[in-house]
Specification:
The complex is a heterodimer of chains A (about 180) and B (about 450).
Chain A (H helix, E strand, L loop, with lengths): L2 H7 L11 H8 L9 E7 L5 E11 L4 E6 L4 H8 L4 E6 L6 E6 L3 E3 L3 H20 L4 H7 L7 E6 L3 E4 L12
Antiparallel strand pairs in A: 1-2, 1-4, 2-3, 3-7, 4-5, 5-8, 6-7
Helix pairs in contact in A: 4-5
Chain B lengths: L18 E6 L5 E6 L2 E5 L2 E6 L4 H9 L1 E7 L6 E12 L3 H17 L9 E13 L13 H13 L4 H16 L3 E7 L5 E8 L9 E3 L3 H9 L3 E3 L8 H13 L18 E9 L2 E10 L7 H26 L16 E6 L4 E4 L2 E4 L1 H17 L3 E3 H6 L9 H18 L4 E6 L2 E5 L4 E5 L6 E3 L1
Parallel strand pairs in B: 14-20
Antiparallel strand pairs in B: 1-2, 1-5, 3-4, 4-7, 5-6, 6-7, 8-9, 8-13, 9-10, 11-12, 12-13, 14-15, 15-16, 17-19, 18-19, 20-21
Classes of the chains: A alpha+beta (about 180), B alpha+beta (about 450).
Chain lengths: ~180, ~450
Amino acid sequence: MSKMASASSNTTPLSDDQADAHSSSQRSEAFVDLDLCGIALATMAFDGRPVVGKCVGFVATNDALRVTLRKSANEKLIGAVQLGSPVAVTFSRPTTHGSIQFKARSARIDEPDRDDFLAAQRQRERFSAELVASAYPPEFSDLYTAYAPHDLLVLEFEPEEVFDQSPGPAAGARLK
Amino acid sequence: MSAPELECIRCCFEGIVPAILATCDSAGQPNVSMISQVHYVDRDQVALSYQFFNKTRRNLLETGVASVMVTDPVTVAQYRLELDYIETQEAGPLFETMKAKLAGIASHAGMQDVFKLRGADLFHVRSLASVPGVEQSVSAPSRNLLSAVRRIVTEMSHAGNLGDLFDVTLAGLRRYLGIDHAILLLADDTSTDLFTVASVGYVRSGIGSEIPLGQGVIGVAARERVPIRIGNMTLEYSFGMALRASVAATNTGDANLPEIPYPGLDAPESQIAVPVLKDRRTLGVIFAESTVALRFQYDDEDALVLIADRLGEEIRRLSERGTNTGRTEASAALPLRRAITVRHYAQDDSVFVDNEYLIKGVAGAIFWKLVRECVLNGRSEFTNRELRLDPSLRLPTHAENLEARLVLLQRRLAERGLGIALERIGRGRFRLIAPTPFELVDTTSATASLSA
């Protein structure tokens, strides 16, 4: 279990018009293991429009989250982040739909290091198994999680806000 | 990488792989979430399901723009769509179609209690781009749907009467589209029900069974005049089970309200209902189902819509031909043998033959008229025209209604196996055949009993 996941699951929800303390703490149990999650990210492009993307792995430290993504699939998104656009990253577990979202006003682009490569490989293995457990065929999960190591970049940011993103009326409850 | 047309990536919108949706608030802060359904509307529009008033919803209302990533469940190819919000629809065909589809997705995901559609958010697709990645090549499809439709409509055009048309259509679905379980229902202008006139692939035909307008995929497709297709059944749309329960309750209660069992599968996974339309009016519904999940996809829907369109035309052709009737001829009385009791309830024109339910409504009124004429005047030959002009039958104005009722009656009689039959003897003419005389009991004058 990553430190970030541990921190988020132990955080008391703050006030929110849709927050529900019980459901939030209940839901947070669903995403204690972020290795089993699909990772989506978004930023805002120079034209003011959102840009959606996918990540292939992550490394969490006490302060920062480093998500790994494919350069070739996210050129516009990477360009927007380099220009200082804010970011949002959501982890979502297929078997439970438990989801958590991290947001920051900015992020920096970095080259992947050894830990990032290892984390991406671990994520691929565990998330792929999770997809199969959700009734997706192994051929699908294999392709869905595929990447080329030389095609990876890292987006690093310090989460300023954390939200429960699990489907339902309490989605959006702030956890940090 | 070149971008395909939106209609070429429709399988991305089947709800098999969740899409990723990104929005921004007015301050530029992004929000990203997994969503269960992006609905293909037409070649430059999609719709998203609005289920909760969450951050995504607030952002959409604030900025009106979104970015969504969808995945082809077969090739795993991915695409980014830039969307511009147009409007939210809270009722109507698009809403009902999405509601049915969402019910199927929710069932598959075990989220029936969470996923409830509040609105269909309609978007213009501003751009569509392929996301570079690893894709799987796809083998050739097992069936050429365009060729299948061509063959079916050709065979439909050769049908000589409505009964043949119904049979040829369902046989074509089975032979050329590989649809093993299908039902053809027609709308009843005198009530809000649809009634089964033909079926294929079931243990019992269910001919004469009724589906209320608005219930199940069949009833919703008929009411909204749009195809309804779901890939993972839910109790909400598993009308067969509910109907059987209702019939079971009915049979233990009021014996005057008998029903013909609906023929559907016990545990379908996929269902599709396509309305047969004429001048924006629902003539009927082609319904198909399967025990295989996600059996019917966008291309199957297109094929069935084309077949339903032709079916509407052929029904009109054959019905109008049927109205061109000859003169009425009196015939010799039927030979006398042991009597068959025909009991008529005027309240809803229910007819029982030898104490077993046969039919009700307009078809029941027609049969009651025929047997009365047979008993009182010794007639066995009749014309469509005289039925159409008889005010006591309260026939709807549209020509196909009489023809459809005659087909329904003909098939119900054949299923009962009593030897009573309606035999066509020429254009717009038919003969009532009975092995024995009738004894008639009309509940409006219960003491009066006629026999011949």
